[in-house]
């Protein structure tokens, strides 16, 4: 296993220092606030989980510790802000074991005593270690506005801590086209469904185009399994793309205007919305198609609440569906499908949602129906089948949530007003805002790409 060793980045110089003399006991020697800094700070992240940090923090004591009684360790986003207090250790200690700390860019070590903390301190940059990985980036897929040919892909360089806008354009000398809808990472490639272009854009993990796959229908969403990428076409089909040949090798007819897909128990579950028939006598669809992956045939249609659009699978053999209803007397409804018995039940303890994402046994959902005074955010534990409170714990306000992604132990909520560039809020496992990114117009998806020796 390859490790990235980090050395002391900087000692931050103070502009002034303050002293305080205790008046409580004239016989007790007074302590001044320290004005010294540790040196030689180093840290090696040994945690293979993306964006989660574990390892030993080391430092050398100041030349004089006369006024120092302890060291305070903070996590910081920028190397100066004391964003997260991690620990206090006694003077004479020269190391500390960091365990499963989420979302920090720097570690600070500050000499201190009962009177306060030194304004001179040392920091070390934390470079996230991922097993077998020398490249890691977050990508933000921005849909743009339909018909305006302004989809885009932004890249957040984790190591440099910077967002690179229009990254696909910079890598390929052309844009994505009209209405990018979905994006997944599978193996050493990325797949982008561009609805308005009837194209699947296949790239390497640095967003360099490998092939544009023309599709017979307008692609909506994708899911991967067994060396294949399955794509919903809005004309009522699901296509199977082989990831070696990058050819569409088969397609199967499902319901009307299929949206998201999920794989469970060697079956593909497809949410059929019928969204294009909303104003006709036919109306919305209200089915989920079940496709056997071995034969690639539809074996069943399950009845659900009107207008199903979002679907996710857990590891316990369940699939979760969000039906949007009719935006009037039939509300948004969250349902669970048992993938063996095909029983469909509404989740009474998690009744309503607009969007959802899944990671590591939890659904992350928000409910933001048109006309609501404020959106609601919540979690649902798929193992205990219990609904939790909001996954946002620090009071961060998001008035117009647009999409949600869960990746690398973090939850990303995108906000959009449909006219200007949107923002993406990154929340750590503790539910606190770690970082806010500016994205493009109508951010649809956040994905994590990582690979060794690209």
If you compute it from the alpha carbons, what radius of gyration comes out, rounded to the nearest whole angstrom? 26 Å
CATH topology of the largest domain: Methylamine Dehydrogenase, Chain H
* Beta-strand segment tally: 37
Instruction: State the secondary-structure class.
Output: mainly beta
Name of the CATH architecture of the largest domain: 7 Propeller
Based on CA inertia axes, which overall geometry fits?
A: elongated
Helix content estimate? under 10%
Number of domains: 2
Q: How far apart are the first and last residues' alpha carbons, in Å?
A: 17 Å
Which whole number gives the mean pLDDT?
Answer: 90
Name the beta content range. over 45%
Low-confidence segments: 1-26
Task: Describe the overall structure.
The protein has 454 residues and is an all-beta fold. The chain folds into 2 domains: 10-125, Sandwich (Immunoglobulin-like), CATH 2.60.40.10; 135-451, YVTN repeat-like/Quinoprotein amine dehydrogenase (Methylamine Dehydrogenase, Chain H), CATH 2.130.10. It is 1% helix and 50% strand. The chain has 1 helix and 37 strands. It has one helix at 167-172; strands at 10-12, 39-43, 52-60, 70-76, 84-90, 95-102, 106-113, 116-117, 121-125, 135-142, 152-157, 162-164, 180-186, 189-194, 199-204, 209-214, 219-225, 228-233, 237-242, 247-253, 258-264, 267-272, 287-292, 297-303, 308-313, 318-323, 333-338, 344-346, 355-359, 362-367, 376-381, 386-387, 401-407, 410-415, 421-427, 433-441, 443-451. Strands 1, 4, 5, 7, 8 and 9 form a 6-stranded antiparallel β-sheet that branches. Strand 31 (376-381) and strand 32 form a beta hairpin. The longest helix has 6 residues, at 167-172. The chain is elongated and about 85 Å long. It starts with 9 loop residues before the first strand and ends with a strand. 41% of the residues are buried. The model is unreliable at 1-26 (pLDDT under 50).
């Amino acid at each position: 296993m390859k490790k990235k060793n980090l050395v002391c980045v900087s000692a931050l110089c103070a502009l002034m220092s303050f002293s305080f003399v205790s008046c409580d006991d004239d016989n007790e020697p007074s302590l001044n606030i320290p004005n010294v800094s540790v040196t030689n700070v180093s840290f090696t992240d040994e945690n293979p989980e993306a964006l989660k940090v574990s390892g030993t923090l080391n430092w050398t004591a100041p030349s004089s510790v006369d006024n120092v009684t302890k060291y305070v360790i903070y996590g910081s986003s920028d190397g100066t802000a004391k964003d997260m207090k991690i620990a206090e250790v006694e003077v004479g200690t020269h190391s500390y074991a960091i365990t499963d700390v989420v979302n920090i860019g720097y570690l600070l070590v500050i000499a201190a005593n009962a009177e306060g903390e030194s304004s001179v301190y040392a920091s070390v940059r934390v470079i996230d270690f991922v097993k077998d990985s020398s490249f890691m980036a977050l990508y933000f897929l921005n849909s743009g506005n339909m018909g305006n040919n302004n989809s885009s892909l932004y890249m957040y360089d984790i190591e440099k801590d910077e967002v690179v806008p229009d990254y696909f354009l910079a890598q390929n000398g052309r844009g994505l086209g009209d209405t990018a809808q979905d994006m997944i990472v599978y193996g050493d490639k990325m797949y982008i469904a561009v609805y308005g272009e009837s194209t699947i854009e296949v790239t390497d993990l640095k967003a360099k185009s490998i092939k544009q796959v023309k599709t017979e229908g307008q692609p909506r969403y994708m899911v991967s399994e067994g060396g294949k990428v399955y794509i919903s076409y809005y004309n009522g089909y699901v296509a199977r793309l082989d990831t070696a040949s990058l050819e569409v090798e088969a397609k199967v007819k499902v319901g009307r205007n299929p949206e998201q897909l999920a794989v469970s128990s060697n079956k593909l579950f497809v949410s059929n919305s019928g969204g294009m028939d909303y104003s006709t006598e036919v109306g919305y669809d209200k089915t989920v198609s079940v496709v056997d992956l071995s034969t690639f045939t539809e074996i069943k249609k399950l009845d659900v609440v009107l207008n199903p659009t979002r679907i996710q699978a857990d590891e316990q053999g369940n699939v979760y569906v969000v039906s949007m209803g009719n935006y009037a007397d039939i509300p948004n409804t969250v349902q669970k499908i048992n993938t063996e018995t095909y029983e469909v039940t509404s989740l009474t303890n998690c009744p309503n949602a607009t969007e959802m994402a899944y990671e590591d046994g939890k659904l992350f959902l928000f409910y933001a129906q048109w006309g609501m005074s404020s959106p609601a955010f919540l979690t649902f534990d798929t193992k205990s089948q219990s609904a939790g409170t909001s996954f946002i714990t620090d009071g961060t306000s998001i008035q117009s949530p647009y999409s949600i992604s869960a990746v690398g132990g973090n939850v990303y909520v995108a906000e959009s007003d449909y006219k200007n560039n949107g923002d993406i809020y990154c929340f750590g496992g503790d539910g606190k805002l770690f970082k806010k990114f500016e994205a493009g117009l109508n951010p649809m998806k956040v994905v994590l790409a990582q690979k060794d020796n690209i």
